[in-house]
Amino acid sequence: MMRFVFKICLLGPPGVGKTSLVLRYVKNYFKNDYLTTLGADFLIKELVLEQFDTKIKLCIWDIGGQSRWETLRPVYLQGADGAIVVCDLTKKSTFRQLPRWVMDLETYAGDDLTPFVLVGNKLDLCKEEFELREVKTAELSEYGKEQGKYVFETSAKTGSGINDMFTRLALEVLKEKAQKEKMRRQLQDKLAGIMDDLNIPDAE
Known about the structure:
With 204 residues, the protein is α/β, with parallel strands linked by helices. The protein is 38% helix and 23% strand.
């Protein structure tokens, strides 16, 4: 069985439920109280993709969204293999901030091709009896289409959509790494051909 370790970062404004998403996924736990993330929290979850005979350890970084942690984001995002960018479906202002978080990821992760998914959280508050939805499914989907990324609507309270979200991101990271490995091998083959043409001997 192949084994990988991926660094995954959760990004988004404060209060959108990033910590709750991680706790639900890793510990199957939900707390109604708002938990302020101090800088960043770190949890690990092992994911088995039986169809690919692959086991992936997800090292999940929950990065604080408050402005006072902004200077630390470059450190936490450095070397991220993938990311989850989150907004709150009941607060339109958080949806409008998504491009800024995507830009942070592209700037600081060290690779502008870092895979990520877009998430609208707190789906449980969007039922007809609550009528708190401010971000329409079509709006989120359209932004996802512009970015060429998968979009999920989730609920940390009920667990809806969370496993699918993390699994899809893991697959996207795996796909990106496979493509890079293929390109690396192709480059090696080309360089080997050039060395042969130039009669450059192999290093002993």
